[in-house]
Design brief:
three-stranded antiparallel beta sheet, five-stranded mixed beta barrel
């Protein structure tokens, strides 16, 4: 079981005196764990941070065994974000959500591309929180739990969609959802199209929305809470007035 392709590091943990076990996200081979000899060295540590992009030479005896990998850094990695503490919490959250949500050894190219787009957005403070919401929505879709925001679940209308049913993940119009407004999730306009601007509270509503369905469909069935790194990110965004 060998392959050579680019990947993102999701996590790395020490293994033995000099090695590490990394969790990698690849486009065509999904999420993979691999042992990296010498990964604890000063030379390699900087590009084994969560979010780092690498070229991976991966080998395993069978698809079920922990493989080994040789990694080569691509670009400057996460160093460009070292002056932005909030963006670093977002990066950690994205890696933790992807690692926790995606099953091992299953190709999820959509999730890889969504993660790639988010990594590029982290250098734009005004943009990345909304892209994070889209990343999580894309992750849900790639896992088979996509939100249906195309039309009202009750009336079929495509206009004035402002709610999402917390049970089904389908959009609901203002009129149809009015009697149940206190039970509905808010649907921020930017999730309906790229042309919609960001209003006050939109990012917070989007994170509430995707967080609800990640918890309901992905993490609760695994008997696990939503990753703490995501909770910390939401706290940092709230403290900085960006929700």
């Amino acid at each position: 079981m060998d392959f050579h392709e680019e990947a993102f590091v999701l996590s790395a943990r020490a293994h033995g005196d000099t090695g590490v076990v990394v969790d990698l996200l690849t486009e065509t081979h999904g999420r993979r764990g691999a042992y990296v000899a010498g990964g604890a060295s000063r030379k390699m540590k900087p590009f084994l941070q969560a979010g780092s992009r690498v070229i991976c030479d991966y080998r395993a005896r069978t698809s079920d065994h922990l493989g080994s990998a040789r990694l080569e850094a691509v670009g400057e990695g996460v160093a460009a974000l070292f002056d932005d503490a909030v963006a670093l919490t977002g990066l950690s959250a994205a890696a933790a959500v992807a690692q926790g949500a995606l099953p091992e050894r299953e190709p999820h190219p959509g999730a890889f591309l969504a993660f790639e787009a988010l990594m590029s957005a982290f250098q734009i403070p005004a943009v990345w929180p909304a892209i994070f919401v889209r990343f999580e929505a894309g992750l849900l879709e790639d896992l088979g739990f996509g939100l249906d925001l195309s039309r009202c679940a009750a009336t079929g209308t495509v206009d004035d969609l402002i709610y999402v049913s917390p049970r089904t993940g389908r959009a609901v119009s203002r009129e149809a959802g009015a009697p149940y407004a206190d039970k509905m999730l808010k649907l921020p306009p930017f999730m309906l199209g790229a042309q919609a601007g960001l209003g006050e509270g939109d990012v917070g509503a989007g994170l509430d929305l995707t967080g609800h369905f990640l918890e309901q469909f992905v993490f609760h069935p695994q008997n696990r809470p939503i990753p703490e790194a995501r909770v910390w990110m939401v706290d940092r965004l709230r403290e900085s007035g960006r929700l």
